[in-house]
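Researcher: I'd like a structural prediction for the single chain below. Treat it as a standalone chain; there are no partners to consider.
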Amino acid sequence: MAFLEVSHLTYSLPGFNLEDLSFTQEEGARVAFAGETGSGKTTVLKLIGALLQPAGGSIRLRNEPVIGPAHRLVPGHDRIAYLSQFFELPKFLRVEQALAYANRMSEMALNRIIRICEIDHLMERKTDQLSGGERQRIALARLLVTAPDLLLLDEPFSNLDAMHRIQMKTVLERIGDQLGITSILVSHDSNDTLPWADVIYILQDGKLVQQARPELVYRRPVNAYVASLFGKYNLFPMDLEAPDRQIFLRPDDLIFTDSDDYDLSGTVTRISFNGPHYEVQVETDRGLITALSSKPAFRAGDTVRLSVLPERVHFM
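Model: Treating it as a single chain, here is the predicted structure.
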């Protein structure tokens, strides 16, 4: 018996249809949904959280049906917590009051969640006197003290600066590792999903187009749409005489070489510094290729040779 079972789920809005979505999630597994804006990621979360009424299909949590808002006085599910990307909090309360009113746990468990969410120093602060990152961690703690079985995270990093994104990612790691809470996360940013998820489901216009481990959706995307969600890539014909057979490579699948044994050659058109590496654009007879280099010993206009890591080659 799966912890969460979604079967043939459908939902319709003007201009949008979620079509026949089915998947299962085991307890403790980290599931992420990825896709462009409007692909249906938030809709799926709200359906699972009983905040929207499906047009068809079923959702079961621990083998019990999740009842949609059409059949409940108050939308939602007692054992499912949904963290909105807008992280709403009750106004004009101290943080300790906001947590106390929602709490279903012992004082020891409450204090543990406060430490995990890194909000110990904010307990006397009013909820309208907080930064965005602080408000989000408190909104998360306020959900956790209700002792949910399933935590739904809707773009949890989208409104945060770089420092608070790192802090929030650390908090989410602790929630899974120390509290053992099963989570589903949606994001359009590969930096959020790739390092966190056990499995990623890709939505395109309401359809599930790929489901796989993070390494596979990154290295073996089923189409250019999936490839584009997880960073830059190269797509060029294997043979100029047969342009329909395309080779897919990430920039880090290519190596600059001085050897006579190489796969591609071309002229450097642009070099950009991106922190841990330089991004190098090379014009070849197969088109413009992007590769990475730790210390490029060349400049724009130079002729370079590139070797392909054979185990990374993927045909699309």
